């Protein structure tokens, strides 16, 4: 044994050939600070080992190395000087691997991401098996590669390919990686270790010139000056178009590659280190790392629920076809749970089946699904007009019209037909689960399961626990949602649940400005381009449906009459009364049609400006943002204080996945923390005269005064 640590062991496996194996105690290998220290010690031992002729780098697990330990990041990055020391020291460990006096071969199975990819890049050769996924996804955390990736990758696959991979965070499958020279060979999983040994033996024998393969990584980037200039100009334009000003990481990555291209390895690494450290201090990085942590927490809860579930969902039913029902049925069947789609009208069933076919047809056109898979999924959806068709299913998803009386009758009827242990759920977006539960004899096996439209694209499912819902029911529904490929967040029952409840004050804040004559298109522009929402509030209202938004005002006014009273003279109510329902009928705040190329298009509607009394009045961007966001954040705080949502992190993920909250802001609570609780309270107090929605809770005021954090721990 050459070296033995907690996560790494090194030993000779053949005459003069050593195997450095990553073998962490946990489920995956990752570069936490302790493992990086062991890696350095192991490489020192190897460098001083007599009779060493070659090294293969392997993993004892189905995955190579998933990257750095992200759980350490927020604590580590809090001290900029500590971060500088850490990244400089850590990146030089990979130099130790690259500087071994013998040929090195990485044998990659499963994920080799971030630091895992950078470890492979530090080797002379890379052999991967057919399960491998290799890439540098750091930009998704608001960072760039920190262990030499911006220096080594351009010298291995060229600056144009490298910049595309680094600035997009794109992962590569084996054949794609082979085409661009990222890896040297692709083999079957059972042949991986033998292939790595064979390659290192060829290098030892001189059949492969490993020193020539290594040398370009130690020198300035060898590239035609004109071509290099064009490469960087093009990359900067692409980053500006795709990432925009809110995401600094892609821009920093380009600068690091460009600055490092002129220098040998050490100076190139200094450029990378400086860019990496700078990014660690940005709000975008903190937000995106926070998202990763929150996502891991939510997924951990879902896994725990799946283990606790006493009922497995093997067959499902959807009541109510059409767009939503068809989407739910497709998603269930696509993920391997056969589904019965029940309706009382044949044309609705046809619409539901057509919706499923349309979704898959687009996947086939894009090469993401073949016709065989499409046929299999469609055959897993059984349309029926008969109540008997739902017998024997494990769960019934009610997705009929958003009317409490209709839903109540349908649910009661289903309860009398299905087995006594069949779970019933409602896909309602606003109606109280406790109210609907009154129609059932056994409310313990009933809860809400709120999908977002379009179902196949939106990742969130709100699982709404009623007063009498059993924990076994919640666990089974969370497990089913997870199997459907969704992120399930459990919330308690209240008007609007979580997402729609906090969306309403945001839209009400917007409507208040429109009622004052402020140009709604100008508000949209600020909230999209400056705050970062994918759609401004006027456009979002049109997409959701003005009639739907107006219906929500009734529900919210019933639940929160003093804070969210219904105003029949508001912009939403006036548009709904004029039957301007938004995209669904081509007219809302905007008019909808198609452009010259047949693509959907929207344009300002002069008649709406006249109807609503809107002028060209503009407000400062900061005021527009405050008047929209203060009510939303306040309502999120209330939901947390009332126990509607279990944690600030889950609230952040719900709005990210359910509404498209700007990722670089990290969610409403991360945004609140970035603004600063005391600053937010002062901002809200400035607008408190506008109504209860703008008035902070006593709990938030106390948190601000005591310097506490909603995201601590």
Automatic annotation (TrEMBL):
Family to which this protein belongs: In the central section; belongs to the 3-hydroxyacyl-CoA dehydrogenase family. Belongs to the enoyl-CoA hydratase/isomerase family.
An individual GO BP term: fatty acid beta-oxidation
Pathway participation: Lipid metabolism; fatty acid beta-oxidation
Catalytic activity entry: a (3S)-3-hydroxyacyl-CoA + NAD(+) = a 3-oxoacyl-CoA + NADH + H(+)
InterPro entries: 3-OHacyl-CoA_DH_CS, 3-OHacyl-CoA_DH_NAD-bd, 3HC_DH_C, 6-PGluconate_DH-like_C_sf, ClpP/crotonase-like_dom_sf, Enoyl-CoA_hyd/isom_CS, Enoyl-CoA_hydra/iso, FA_oxidation_alpha_subunit
Organism: Pseudidiomarina gelatinasegens
Domain 3-hydroxyacyl-CoA dehydrogenase C-terminal: 496-592, 624-708
GO cellular component: fatty acid beta-oxidation multienzyme complex
Entry EC number(s): 4.2.1.17
SUPFAM superfamilies named among the record's database cross-references: 6-phosphogluconate dehydrogenase C-terminal domain-like, ClpP/crotonase, NAD(P)-binding Rossmann-fold domains
Name of the protein in question: enoyl-CoA hydratase
Keywords annotated in UniProt: Fatty acid metabolism, Isomerase, Lipid degradation, Lipid metabolism, Lyase, Multifunctional enzyme, NAD, Oxidoreductase
One Gene Ontology term of the molecular function aspect: 3-hydroxybutyryl-CoA epimerase activity
Residue stretches making up the 3-hydroxyacyl-CoA dehydrogenase NAD binding domain: 316-494
């Amino acid at each position: 044994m050459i070296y033995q640590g907690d996560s790494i062991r090194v030993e000779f496996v053949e005459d003069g050939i050593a195997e450095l194996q990553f073998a962490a105690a946990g489920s995956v290998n990752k570069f936490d600070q302790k493992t990086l220290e062991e890696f350095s010690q192991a490489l020192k031992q190897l460098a001083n080992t007599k009779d060493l002729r070659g090294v293969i780098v392997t993993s004892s697990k189905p995955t190579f190395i998933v990257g750095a330990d992200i759980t350490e990041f927020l604590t580590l990055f809090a001290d900029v000087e500590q971060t500088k020391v850490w990244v400089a020291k850590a990146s030089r460990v990979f130099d130790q691997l690259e500087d071994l006096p013998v040929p090195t071969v990485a044998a990659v199975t499963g994920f080799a991401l971030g630091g895992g990819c950078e470890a492979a890049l530090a080797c002379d050769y890379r052999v991967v098996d057919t399960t491998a996924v290799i890439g540098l996804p750091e930009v998704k955390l608001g960072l760039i590669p920190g262990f030499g990736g911006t220096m080594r990758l351009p010298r291995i696959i060229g600056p144009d390919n490298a910049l595309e991979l680094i600035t997009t965070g794109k992962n590569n499958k084996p054949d794609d990686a082979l085409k661009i020279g990222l890896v040297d060979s692709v083999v079957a999983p059972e042949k991986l270790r033998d292939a790595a040994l064979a390659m290192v033996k060829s290098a030892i024998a001189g059949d492969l010139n490993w020193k020539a393969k290594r040398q370009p990584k130690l020198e300035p980037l060898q590239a035609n000056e004109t071509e290099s200039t064009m490469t960087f100009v093009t990359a900067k334009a692409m980053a500006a178009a795709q990432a925009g000003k809110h995401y600094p990481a892609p821009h920093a990555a380009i600068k690091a590659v460009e600055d490092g291209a002129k220098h040998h390895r050490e100076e190139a690494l200094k450029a990378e280190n400086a860019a990496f450290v700078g990014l660690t201090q940005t709000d975008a990085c903190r937000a995106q790392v926070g998202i990763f942590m929150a996502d891991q927490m939510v997924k951990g809860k879902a896994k725990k629920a799946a283990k606790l579930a006493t009922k497995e969902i093997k067959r499902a039913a959807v009541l109510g076809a059409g767009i939503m029902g068809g989407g739910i049925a497709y998603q269930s069947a696509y993920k391997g749970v056969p589904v019965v789609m029940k309706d009382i009208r044949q044309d609705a069933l046809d619409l539901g089946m057509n919706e499923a076919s349309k979704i898959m047809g687009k996947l086939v056109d894009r090469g993401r699904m073949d016709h065989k898979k499409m046929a299999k999924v469609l055959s897993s959806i059984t349309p029926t007009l008969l109540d008997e068709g739902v017998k024997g299913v494990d769960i019934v998803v009610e997705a009929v019209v958003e009317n409490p009386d209709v839903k109540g009758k349908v649910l009661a009827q289903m309860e009398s037909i299905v087995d006594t242990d069949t779970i019933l759920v409602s896909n309602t977006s606003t109606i109280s689960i406790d109210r609907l539960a009154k129609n059932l004899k056994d409310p313990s096996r009933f809860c809400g399961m709120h999908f977002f439209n379009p179902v196949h694209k939106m990742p969130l499912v709100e699982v709404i626990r009623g007063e009498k819902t059993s924990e076994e029911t919640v666990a089974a529904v969370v497990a089913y949602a997870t199997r459907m490929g969704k992120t399930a967040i459990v919330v308690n029952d209240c008007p609007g649940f979580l997402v729609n409840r906090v969306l309403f004050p945001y839209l009400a804040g917007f409507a208040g400005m429109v009622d004052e004559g402020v140009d709604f298109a100008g508000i949209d522009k600020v909230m999209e381009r400056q705050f970062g929402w994918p759609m401004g509030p006027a456009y979002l209202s049109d997409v959701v449906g003005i009639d739907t938004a107006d219906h929500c005002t009734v529900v919210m006014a019933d639940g929160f009459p003093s804070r969210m009273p219904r105003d029949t003279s508001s912009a939403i109510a006036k548009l709904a009364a004029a039957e301007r329902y938004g995209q669904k009928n081509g007219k809302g705040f905007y008019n909808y049609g198609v452009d010259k190329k047949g693509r959907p298009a929207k344009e300002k509607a002069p008649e709406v400006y006249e109807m609503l009394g809107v002028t060209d009045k503009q407000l400062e961007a900061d005021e527009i943002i405050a008047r929209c966001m203060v009510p939303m954040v306040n309502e999120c705080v209330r939901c947390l204080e009332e126990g509607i949502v279990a944690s600030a992190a889950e609230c952040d993920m719900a709005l990210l996945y359910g509404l498209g909250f700007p990722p670089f802001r990290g969610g409403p609570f991360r945004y609140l923390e970035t603004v600063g609780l005391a600053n937010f309270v002062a901002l809200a107090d400035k607008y408190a005269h506008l109504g209860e929605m703008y008035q902070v809770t006593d709990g938030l005021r106390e948190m601000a005064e005591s310097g506490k954090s909603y995201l601590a721990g």
